[in-house]
Structures are given as structure tokens and as C-alpha cells.
Amino acid sequence: LKQVFNKDKTFRPKRKFEPGTQRFELHKRAQASLNSGVDLKAAVQLPSGEDQNDWVAVHVVDFFNRINLIYGTICEFCTERTCPVMSGGPKYEYRWQDDLKYKKPTALPAPQYMNLLMDWIEMQINNEDIFPTSVGKCKEE
């Protein structure tokens, strides 16, 4: 378990929603519906009167946090030696391109690819132009 919380690994702490904001309230509603064993289709349906972009953003961040947690539990078993290629089975190989350091699709070991991918996703989530965090205060009910 110590490896999961190593800050040099891909695992990152969960992104938090500021209490008192509309996104925080949406996050609580999403968590409640996902934890109650409800039909997934109903759980992700846009609540009446809520902004679709905010609802999608909440689910994207939650999904990222869950994937990070899952990857954090298995990353010690996938090293550059044991996973020299990022693949989706024998027929598919994923290559990294970011137009910064990697201008062309580049084959990388799976751990390196995953680190770059998680960094890239985190940059997108932390970009205020894509995922603004100050959407406003939640409505009083």
C-alpha cells in the first residue's frame, strides 16, 4: 500500500470541489446516486435545472480520480521491463504524441506512457478555460 501513495508514482490525490459551490453539490448528488446501487443510466442523467457542462465536468473529474486510484494499485506490477510497450493486446500499440516533446507518435514503455497521459489529463482538468472551478455558489433549497 505504501507504493500507492508514493508521490513519484502516477497516483495523484483526488481533485476536490470547493464546498458551497454548485459543482460541490452536484458532486455530492452524483456520489449519492452512484453509491446507492441505482441504475447507471439514471445516475448519470442530468438533474433538472442543472447545467450540462457542470454535470459532465463533475463526472469527468470523478472518473479521472477513480482511474488514478485503480492504476495506483497496479502500477508496481507494470515496469519498463515487464511492460515495454503500451498496448491493448497483441493487435494494438498506443504511441504518445503531445506536439511538445513528442512531435510524432512515439512508442513508449507502458509506465512512461501512463505517466504522460495522467499528467496531460490533469493539465486539462486543471485548466480553468476547460474546467472552471468558480462556477458560482450553489442554490439554496
UniProtKB/TrEMBL annotation:
InterPro entries: MOB_kinase_act_fam, MOB_kinase_act_sf
Record keywords, A-Z: Kinase, Metal-binding, Transferase, Zinc
Domain of life: Eukaryota
One Pfam family named in its UniProt record: Mob1_phocein
Molecular function GO labels: kinase activity
PANTHER family with a match to the protein in the record: MPS ONE BINDER KINASE ACTIVATOR-LIKE MOB
Name of the molecule in the record: MOB3B kinase
